[in-house]
Amino acid sequence: MNRTWIMRAALFVTLLCVSSSAWAQRPKSDVGAPTASGKVVAFEADKSIAVEVKQRGGQSKKFDFAIVKDKTKVEFLGVTKTIDVGTEVKVWADKDNPKTAARIVAGTPQPGNRKPQPKKADEPTAKVTPPPPKPQFTIRNPQLFKRQSPAVVANAIDREIQRVLDAEGIRASGPADDAEFLRRAYVDIIGKIPTPEKVIDFLESKDDEKRTKLIEELLATRDYGLHFADLWCDRINVKDMPIYREPFIAWMSESLNQGRGWDEVVLDLLTAEGQFNFSTRGKRLASTDPQALFLLLNTEEGAGKGPNPAWLAAESGRLFLGVQLQCAECHNHPFTESWKQTDFWGMAAFFSRLRTEKASQGGLQWKETPATTDKPLSVVIPPTALKNIGKTVPARLLGKTTDYQPGEQQLLRHELARWMTAAENPYFAKAAVNRMWAHFFGRGLVNPVDDLHDDNPASHPAILDLLAAEFKNSGFDQKHLIRCICQSQAYQRTSVPQKDNDDNHDKYCHMAVKVMGPGVFYDCLKIATGFGELKVGLPERKTKLTVITQFTPREVFVDFFRAAQGEEANPLENTHGIPQALKLMNAAQLSTVSPVVQRLTASGMDRAQTIEQLYLTAFARRPSAAESKLIADFLARRNDATLAQGYAAVLWTLINSAEFVSNH
Amino acid sequence: MHTLRNRLSRRDLLHLTAAGVGTVSASGWLPVLASHAAEQAAQGRRHKSCILLYMLGGPSHIDTFDPKHDVETATEFQSIATSVPGIRICEHLPGVARLIHHGAIIRSMNTVESDHDRGRYLMHTGYPRGSGEVPWPSMGAIVSSELGQPGFLLPNFVVCNLTDRLDPAFTGYLGPQHRGLILPNLDRGIEDVRPAVQQEELNSRLDLLTQLDDAFRGRYRAGSTVAHQSTYRRSVELMRAEQLRAFDLSLEPAATRTRYTPRQPGPNEQGYNGLRDFGRGCLLARRLVEVGVPFVEVVLTGWDTHANNLAGTRRVSEVLDPAWSAVVQDLRDRDLLDSTLVIWMGEFGRTPRINNQGGRDHYGRAWSTVLMGGGIRGGRVIGRTDRLGATVEERPVTAADFMATVCEILGIDSRKVNTGPGGRTVRLVHRDAQPIRELLGP
Fold first, then answer.
1. What is the pLDDT of residue B46?
2. Of the residues A421, A439, A472, which one is the last residue of a structural domain?
3. Which DSSP string do the residues of A450-477 spell out, in sequence order?
């Protein structure tokens, strides 16, 4: 991936050599001057650029991760935009193709020279003060970091797991067979089941490296980023309605697919800007900053309300540092000495200067008053807490023994965000690693996954430390972390327990049987049936009082199948209740002859072949001889008018089965 | 105490049905059941049930149960005498007025939220949204977890008339097994409860499914597979359950249906969607309580009278009054009123001051709720507001106090401690909550 941007890599190397607090001095300027500007004739294909396009009305819009698809087409966040010939653009070229930009715009190329745009008379003059400098959008160069090879890390994981198993005299199950591994890797990494063709290919491949290659192949798909973005959307959204998912998922998936560091993604979330409005139709983001979703969800509606410092502190602590500070909102933490009430409010104080104000284009925008050195930064404990109401708590970073001394004109939310995501932050890497581990193994090294503190130790502290260090050293590269985990024998074990190791799942002696989350379940049902979309949600969810938005069939389904509201589901539990089972059994669409069955019926395959195809489609494996016979007998007993009806009945049974919804 | 559910098993019901329905008319089934339930009640064996009449939007207390006259905030409605001397309520609730001796008007509600969603959350859970970062369960989920019987075929928590995207059926930390069944359309009954294929075809598919799932469970021995099979088994039982007939309102005599909905609002009337099904929802609630469902919520929309408060309040009251009084009378006639608590509440009251659009706005500082039946000491008023209806002068009742009162009336220990997310201990009701003792016990 040659997507290191001009100047950034060089700057970053310099910074790494400076003191450990170098992160605070990361350059706040934009990417630098454009490498060219002018009117578009044609773009050169297959290059990544940053492009600023002048739009109607004279305003410019910048697309950071644009990929040239065609002479006039640029893809941005998964959406292809046609940029008309003659449109005025500024272009920042890919570092490795510095000459590209010169050829993609007409006129005289002016590398390194920002051409001042003459202002038209009718152009609205900007009344708004320029937004505070944003953290830059960097793609790091992997070579800059001292990461180990994933195989080495995976071996270290396995040694530690084996050490614990030996110490406790627990026998481990054997490796998963290829089919089991294939479906598991697919569902875990991209949230989808493989096609029958892929299953056959994989099963018949004689390549010794095929599992490692499969992991690589999956990480390179667009679906990888989409899957994890979907999961994160749910996580940050967990106490609210699904709103405004689409732009957020586009932004986050692109960030993940392009391998941005997790620190930078979180930094963007925490320091987002943008406009939004409240209306009778609910909260709406009206900004081009999809990452502002996190801010939006923690902004209260109403006069005198706005961004809620307590919510922001609790949610950012829980999601990105893995600490449950929120208990300390009202009182000292009941379960641990680690968190005091003042720790919570000390963190919340960093958000206390954030307000909402009217935006010039209508609606509201977030606005932070910069700090001044003469006034201490603090927050007053509000009456909703249980104790110390009215007490003034100064801003203090978690785990520090002194209060935070703001610098002149500092934006404190940005300072907190930089501290949270810094390599030396004691919680950040561990929290991310623990979540990622839980994603693949069904339980965290620490549980609950977002409750890391001294009195809640990890089951395998050495693995948590190892992976946290590795994650940091890789520049918080999620793909690297996934490779390390997925290449381990522990991950590649079968989920069939041995006679005596049923209850030792927390020792990783066999893989857990996880249950697909609602979004993954929806996507897999679509694949298995071939329908374009499934209309099996609650009907008539129109609203009178508080209309939120139009929901896609997937959102309606997810909402209907979601576990207890406000909680992250335990992936080891099947939380579907009776309404969900009724839906799966009796929804008309899932009982009809699906496109997949139609194709199979039309293909001219015989009964045995069709049964095999149905198994490959739903379970990503071939049926055993006994299973083939069971299904064949089932079909033989029927008096269907058409072949398709019998196969539809079989597929109905497969998608309603425990095996389908399980990821084993 | 909770033996009815065990005793009234599906087999019993089938037996009862066979005895009663085969020879009598179709609607004969429920009277048989009701008398059976009443017999249980007489023996003190029936657990209590609860019907929540939820007034979405927030009714004006001054124009309903706390009428004020001759002050600048006064209601323009007359007030009328009730079955309890000295207690007067709004003229547009004449049916309810005759039943006040069964109930208690709480005129001193004092709550902190003034946003619909947050107010609704507060009144359904007893906790402000987000407090302690715990996903708190809705009242129906609490009742389902405390009073519901695991073997009961019908859902323990049913919500009728959901015209709103906001979900009142949430279960918070109690988990999906206590999630309310939402009936968005009373004509359709339970969604998807009818097989999409012939019964025989379904049976043969289910046989195959059982074989596949048994094999998978045997091989992987995962708890999630056990849960999957159990959910499917219960769903199939529900599909075949005789009690499903409780959802069929056409089994009620026309005269009864008319008592609940004497005048069906026309589709072009203002507020039609919110008003349309309230009467039928109340009738369904009664039928469900008769077969043992412990919690039914029926929503009535239209109280958010920021403009034209008088016309709006009157329109909604005229839908409310016959349905509410019919359900209370029917419960009384079936000897079920003492074991069924009927709650009337919204998310807050409305401002004493009338705004420049002739409306009243959201107001939580002082407002009213009503409890009826459930064996409470009825015929009384709790608390008092000032002459303007603006502040509470006596016995303020918080949302937590209210929740604690409801729990205690239903026989649920309001001081109970549960296990919440991540193994944390959470209180069913806030520790500072004081149930209204004067309503409890004979």
1. 64
2. A421
3. T---TTS--SSHHHHHHHHHHHHHTTS-
Restricting to B residues 280-309, those with a Cβ less than 8 Å away from any Cβ of A are: 301, 304
| Residue B130 to residue A311, Cβ atoms within 8 A | yes
User: What's the CA gap between A182 and A436, in Å, rounded?
Assistant: 19
Task: Verify whether the Cβ–Cβ distance B211 to A545 is below 8 Å.
Answer: no
Q: How confident is the model at residue A64 (pLDDT cuts 50, 70, 90)?
A: low
Looking at beta carbons, which residues of chain B come within 8 Å of A515?
A: 224
Task: Identify all chain A residues contacting B215, using CB atoms and an 8 Å cutoff.
Answer: 627
**Residue A98 confidence (pLDDT):** 45
Interface check for B150 against chain A (CB to CB < 8 A): the answer is no
Q: CA–CA separation, A32 vs A11, rounded Å? A: 12
Average confidence score pLDDT of chain A: 78
Closest-CA distance, A572 to chain B, in angstroms, reads 6
pTM: 0.70
Q: Give φ, ψ of A454 to 5 degrees.
A: -55, -35
How far apart are alpha carbons B124 and A21 in whole angstroms? 48
Choosing among 3.40.720.10, 3.40.50.80, 1.25.40.10, 3.30.2000.30, the CATH entry for B47-189+248-439 is 3.40.720.10
Q: Looking at the complex, does the CB of residue A461 fall below 8 Å from at least one CB of chain B?
A: no
Measured distance CA(B260)–CA(B310) in Å, rounded:
23
Q: Work out the number of other CB atoms within 10 angstroms of the CB of residue A18.
A: 10
Using a CB-CB cut-off of 8 Å, the residues of chain A touching B181 are 578-579
Asked if B392 and B66 count as a contact pair (C-beta separation under 8 A), the reply is: no
Domain count, chain A: 4
Taking CB atoms and an 8 Å limit, are B301 and A563 in contact across chains?
Answer: no
pLDDT by residue (tens digit) across A437-463? 999 999 999 988 888 887 788 999 999
- Per-residue pLDDT of A10-58, as tens digits, reads 333 222 232 333 333 323 333 466 666 666 666 654 455 666 766 655 6
Residues A265 and A387 in one domain: yes
| Residues A322 and A200 placed together within one structural domain of the fold | no
Give the residue on A whose Cα is nearest the Cα of B136.
A566
Q: Do B224 and A574 touch (CB under 8 A)?
A: yes
Residues A455, A336 contacting (CB under 8 angstroms): yes
**Residue B209: its chain A contacts at CB < 8 A?**
653, 656-657
pLDDT digits (tens, 9 = 90+) for B120-172: 999 999 998 877 768 889 999 999 999 987 678 888 999 887 655 456 677 77
Taking CB atoms and an 8 Å cutoff, what residues of chain A touch B172?
Answer: 564-567
Residue A337 binned pLDDT confidence (cut-offs 50, 70, 90) = low
Q: Give the helix/strand (H/E) hosting B370.
A: strand B367-373
SS (H, E, C) A76-134: ECCEEEECCCCCEEEEECECCCCCHHHHHECCCCCCCCCCCCCCCCCCCCCCCCCCCCC
Contacts of B238 in chain A (CB under 8 A): 578, 582
Domain boundaries, position A486: 148-223+431-448+459-512
Q: Is A638 on the interface with B (CB under 8 A)?
A: yes
- What's the rounded mean pLDDT across residues B273-277? 78
At A135, the pLDDT band (50, 70, 90 cuts) reads very low
Query: A515 at the B interface (CB within 8 A)?
Result: yes
Read off the pLDDT of residues B30-59 as tens digits, 9 standing for 90 and up: 333 344 444 444 444 468 999 999 999 999
Q: How many CB pairs under 8 A join A and B?
A: 212
| ipTM for the assembly | 0.77
First to last CA, chain A: 33
- CB of B431 less than 8 A from some CB of A: no
What is the least distance, in Å, from the CA of A384 to any CA of chain B?
8
Residues of chain B with CATH 3.40.720.10: 47-189+248-439
pLDDT tens-place string over residues A276-306: 765 444 455 555 577 888 888 888 776 677 8
Contact B115 A630 (CB under 8 A): no
The C-alpha atoms of residue B5 and residue B293 are separated, in whole angstroms, by 10
